[in-house]
Amino acid sequence: MVVDFDHYSKKVEFMRKNFLVVSDSNFFVDALKKYFLPNDFNFAYCITAQDIDLNSMPKFDNKLMAYCNPMRHEHVQSVTKQIIDMHESIDGLIIFLNSEGGEYFSTSPDQWLDYWNYKVLGSIRFINQISKHMKKNKKGKIINILNLEARFPNLINAVGNSADMGLMNLTKAMAAELAPLNINCNSISLGDFEFTKFNNKMNDIPINRQGDSSDLMSLIDYLLTGNSSYIVGENINLDGGFSRIL
Is the separation of the CB atoms in 191 and 236 below 8 Å? Predict the structure, then answer.
């Protein structure tokens, strides 16, 4: 019997899940790369920043990584089109924009608007483009990753907190609209992790330790690939029990 290895490899490639990750956190991207084996999943990473050259369109390199400014609609369109052209199906979108929003009393209205344009509208731009593709395929997973600090409002971090609360409510609204099309939308609120410290009081965390990257990756893994279809529009507090009283 002659085995058609080319046909087999193409079939395996087709069966793999394809995910787009949008983030400005190198720590988060590196943790994803270590956790998810490339033999099992196809990940493309869009690294974002506000100071990326706006005159050149983003382009994915051979490591499936591109750099773009989410404040520019044409950048987002270019990135999403390239991903959709590369893969017949985009199975999941993960967004984690973690740049700080600035202190309330020293942030000008223009700076506030720029931050919201970057984090909130930037997320919306990516979600709009990818969800159109998911609607056609009638399947998909969307995960917004936020900071738990938004659940404990204070004026010092009101700019970033208000953006996260806006994205949390957006996720819930999207979930209700897209669930009938087999598209799951959920958010994760991170407590004390190495890259999202806000509390720094271990006595207030019942598990008595800071979050590890594997704690986050295992949850993302479940929401993306596990039997999580009945989890719809939820915001999951990943904080070792810190927010148990909410």
Answer: no
Question: Has residue 2 been placed in a domain?
Answer: no
**Residues in the chain where the model's pLDDT stays below 70:** 1-15, 39, 54, 197-202, 245-246
Per-residue model confidence as pLDDT tens digits over 26-42 = 999 999 999 987 767 89
121: DSSP letter: I
Predicted TM-score (pTM) of this structure: 0.90
- SS3 state at 187: strand
Q: Which single residue is written with the structure tokens 């591109």? A: 66
Provide the pLDDT for residue 51: 85
**CATH number reported for the structural domain that contains residue 210 in this entry:** 3.40.50.720
Calculate the CA 78 to chain-centre distance.
18
Determine, yes or no, domain membership for 3: no
**Residue 186, beta-bridge partner list:** 143
